[in-house]
TrEMBL record:
UniProt name for this protein: Arf-GAP with coiled-coil, ANK repeat and PH domain-containing protein
Mapped ANK repeat ranges: 694-726, 727-759
UniProt organism field: Fundulus heteroclitus
InterPro entries: ACAP1/2/3-like, AH/BAR_dom_sf, Ankyrin_rpt, Ankyrin_rpt-contain_sf, ARFGAP/RecO, ArfGAP_dom, ArfGAP_dom_sf, BAR_dom
Inhibition and activation profile: GAP activity stimulated by phosphatidylinositol 4,5-bisphosphate (PIP2) and phosphatidic acid.
Membrane topology of the entry: Peripheral membrane protein
Residue span(s) of domain PH: 266-361
Keyword Membrane: yes
Lineage: Eukaryota, Metazoa, Chordata, Craniata, Vertebrata
Length: 833
């Protein structure tokens, strides 16, 4: 607020002047208190800044110490040193900023308060004093009597002098007020502007400093992505190695000893032994022994220099010692001395004796010029005392999955930004991604995209086939159909992350670029998909190959009429993949009390197969098949299958309305993954229910279509594996009725409820028993037993038994890679009588 006092007005000493003076004095008093407060706050800020700089210096010192400690890692050491130097420079800039704040705010404002405001206060004192004197002179002049001329003259003279003095004082006071009002603006703005320029300089210096540092930071960022991938790969390898070693039998430390004559470090064998001292007390001490460079040495600590027991093993011999009180002792005797040692067990003693003997033999052989090195495979050493092998790798991993997926057209570059050589994939979309886009997809949530590594993760065969059925080209034709029409720019490699993230969200979350079909287009698409006969013939590679109906086999004692009836009634029962001995060992493995062990009898239906390669299980269920099975023994099953499946035929009826859900429904039956992906992009509900067709779902239709890949695609997109139709049957019921063993295996792996009963009180197991499908019965029984075992063991084994998992992996591989072995029926035909 600008307050000025008129010089003419002050000479009048009017009430208006007095009011203005009073207002000015109040304003100056308030200004002084505000400036004092600002100066104190500035002092506090500067003190806090100095404390911050001090703590920051200690932090930078800690970074330098960490860099020195990481001297063996050149990347960490050089990067941390450079970062510490940059942060130290920022500390120096902070110090300059706080010094400037002290000069501009503290010093300048304090000077203004002490000098200018002090002059104002002194002028005010003089003004107040002369005002009082003038007021007294006026009163005295007014009170002078007429008859006393000398008093009148005296009062008049005093009043004249006082008025003259008042004029000088009041003019000076008004001048001081106006100067102060003018100067306050310049002083305050000058100090604050100086402070803001100090900040501007500080941030410019920081920007320039980190601009120079930015190339290094970008380089490290690129290296960091690879380091994260490498670390994940190393972690997975370590976990696999940990799991492999953990599976070995380490109940005895004996298994930890291994003799290797060609070890890279030259140490053929090493381990702990007790050594008897050569002193008078004959004390026994535990030492770390090793055989290296044809010498026997030991150490007390790792940093100690090895003590040589035997200089040259060629000059010594080794023998058992049974004449002392201690067990497991042996003695190494050289021409000059002998050394008594004790192992922890008899097996270890034998291993050490064999190792010393083989080392002696190796030393002699190495000495000759034309002698070959001792062959470890034929030596008498113990080798590794653990005979456990590595677990069999059943799923594709690493380069195998990568090569298969990248071989699909369009998959050689990231689906969203075009970055070449992608190493990640979205398994529910069926696309390949670069590491940046994979991180963005992961942030969308698994209901939009499920990210998996092509090199680090293990790939099930059905999931790998799903990736090969779709691909970047197919998905982009769906999700980017209107991109060019809308003028949207597709990201390029190296674009800022926020731009790529915005594009990916618009593409998959908002589905902004998806072309919505018209009602007529949707009707044409659904009708085309419903005509699945043509689709079956044109895409037969998705189905298991047809197998000719096997010739029915009769049990001994059957009549010829039975054979003709079998030929008329349907297909013959296929051999089970398990022979009776395998089944017996499997079930007894899961139930040591033998309650679930299948019976063997002359009437059990075990016969030699046509090629004589295995026996088959004719009676798939026995009286002890499961705890909830009938107690009475089931009668022998017929040698032929039922004539028809109880499943309802799949027939297309004109619906009341066409929707993306209906497209997904028929596309699942037609095994057309691109059409299924398109339906989901158009907003189809993955668990859509066809109320006009027994409340069947797309997953149930995928079962009838006979493809594991379509089932896997729906499950990856959150299809409910336990959703029932109007008959109370879920996907597992339908797969069992149709004899689709691979799908049964898939649904059991995904948590299908095998205890659910339909409206006829039929469970999947009872259906499989009625159909005499030995493989499906076996899978259901094993799944049931594994579930019971998992519940019994609780949190100690949440995934169940490893044998069960191995069996299901074998079935999965067979269903994907050799489906002919699992063919129970011919291709499902709704028109079959």
């Amino acid at each position: 607020m600008k307050i000025t006092v008129d010089f003419e007005e002050c000479l009048k000493d009017s009430p208006r002047f007095r009011a203005t003076i009073e207002e000015v004095e109040g304003d100056v008093c308030e200004l002084e208190s505000k400036l004092d407060k600002l100066v104190k706050l500035c002092i506090g800020m500067i003190d806090a800044g100095k404390a911050y700089n001090s703590a920051n210096k200690q932090f930078v010192s800690g970074i330098r110490e960490l860099a020195q400690q990481s001297a063996k890692d050149e990347v960490i050491e050089s990067s941390l040193t450079k970062f510490a130097e940059s942060l130290q420079e920022m500390i120096n800039y902070h110090t300059i900023l706080f010094d400037q704040a002290q000069r501009s705010i503290k010093t300048q404002l304090q000077t203004f308060v002490k000098d200018d405001l002090r002059k104002f206060k002194e002028a005010k004192k003089h003004f107040d004093k002369v005002s009082e004197e003038k007021e007294a002179a006026l009163i005295k002049n007014a009170q002078a009597p007429r008859n006393k001329q000398h008093e009148v003259e005296e009062a008049t003279n005093i009043l004249t002098a006082t008025r003259k003095c008042f004029r000088h004082i009041v003019l000076d006071y008004v001048l001081q007020i106006n100067v102060l009002q003018s100067k306050r603006r310049s002083e305050i703005l000058k100090s604050m502007l100086s402070f803001m320029y100090a900040h501007l300089t500080f941030f410019h210096q920081g920007y320039d400093l980190f601009s120079e540092l930015q190339p290094l930071m970008k380089q490290l960022g690129g290296q960091l992505d690879q380091l994260v991938v490498d670390a994940a790969k190393e972690k997975r390898d370590m976990e696999q190695k940990h799991s492999t070693i953990q599976q070995k039998d380490f109940s005895n430390d004996d298994t930890k000893l291994e003799y290797n004559v060609d070890a890279d470090n030259g140490i053929a064998m090493e381990g702990y032994l007790f050594k008897r001292a050569s002193n008078a007390f004959k004390t026994w001490n535990r030492r770390w022994f090793s055989i290296q460079n044809n010498q026997l040495v030991y150490q007390k600590k790792f940093k100690d220099n090895p003590t040589v027991v035997v200089e040259d093993l060629r000059l010594c011999t080794v023998k058992h010692c049974e004449d002392i009180e201690r067990r497991f002792c042996f003695e190494v005797v050289s021409p000059t001395k002998s050394c008594m040692m004790q192992a922890d067990s008899e097996k270890l003693r034998q291993a050490w004796i064999k190792a010393v003997q083989n080392s002696i033999a190796t030393a002699f052989r190495d000495k000759g010029d034309n002698c070959e090195k001792l062959d470890r495979k034929s030596s008498t050493s113990t080798g590794s005392l653990d005979s456990g092998g590595e677990p069999k790798e059943r799923s594709l991993k690493g380069e195998s999955a990568l090569q298969k997926v990248l071989a699909i057209p369009g998959n050689g570059c990231c689906c969203d930004c075009g970055q070449p050589d992608p190493r990640w994939a979205s398994i529910n979309l069926g696309i390949t991604l670069c590491i940046q886009c994979s991180g963005i997809h992961r942030s969308l949530g698994v209901h939009f995209s499920k990210v998996r590594s092509l090199t680090l993760d293990t790939w099930e065969p059905e999931l790998l086939k799903l990736m090969c059925e779709l691909g970047n080209k197919v998905i982009n034709q769906i999700y980017e159909a209107r991109r060019e029409e809308l003028g949207a720019r597709k990201p390029q490699p190296g674009d800022p992350r926020h731009e790529v993230e915005a594009y990916i969200k618009a593409k998959y979350v908002d589905r902004r670029f998806v072309r919505r079909p018209s009602d007529e287009e949707l009707r044409t698409k659904v009708v085309s998909l419903s005509k699945q006969e043509k689709r079956l013939s044109s895409s037969s590679d998705h189905l298991p190959p047809k197998a000719p109906p096997p010739t029915p086999k009769l049990r001994p004692g059957s009549h010829a009429s039975g054979q003709s009836a079998a030929a008329r009634g349907g297909e013959a029962r296929r051999d089970s993949l398990f022979c009776p001995d395998e089944l017996d060992s499997l079930f007894s493995y899961f139930d040591t009390s033998s309650k679930l062990r299948s019976k063997k009898s002359a009437d059990s239906g075990i016969q030699n197969s046509a090629d004589g390669s295995r026996e088959r299980l004719a009676t798939a269920a026995s009286s002890n098949s499961l705890a909830d099975a009938e107690a009475a023994e089931a009668p022998p099953l017929p040698a032929t299958l039922p004539a028809a499946s109880p499943c309802k035929e799949v027939v297309f009826f004109e619906p009341k309305e066409y929707s993306p859900g209906l497209q997904l429904y028929w596309a699942s039956f037609a095994r057309s993954l691109p059409d299924m992906a398109e339906a989901l992009a158009h907003g189809a509900e993955v668990n859509w229910v066809n109320t006009e067709e027994d409340k069947r779902t797309p997953l149930i239709m995928a079962v009838h279509g006979g493809s594991m890949v379509t089932c896997e695609f729906l499950l990856q997109n959150a299809a409910n594996v336990n959703q029932l139709d109007a008959q109370g049957r879920g996907p597992l019921h339908h797969a069992t009725m149709l004899g689709h063993t691979g799908q049964v295996c898939l649904f059991l792996k995904r948590g299908a409820n095998q205890n659910a009963a339909d409206i006829d009180e039929k469970t999947p197991l009872s259906i499989a028993v009625d159909a005499a499908n030995a493989d499906i019965v076996t899978l259901l029984r094993l799944a049931k037993m594994n579930e019971e075992m998992r519940e019994a063991e609780g949190p100690y084994n949440p995934s169940g038994d490893e044998t069960y998992q191995d069996i299901f992996q074998d079935f999965t591989h067979m269903a994907s890679n050799d489906p002919d072995k699992l063919n129970r029926y011919q291709q499902y035909d709704p028109q079959r009588p």
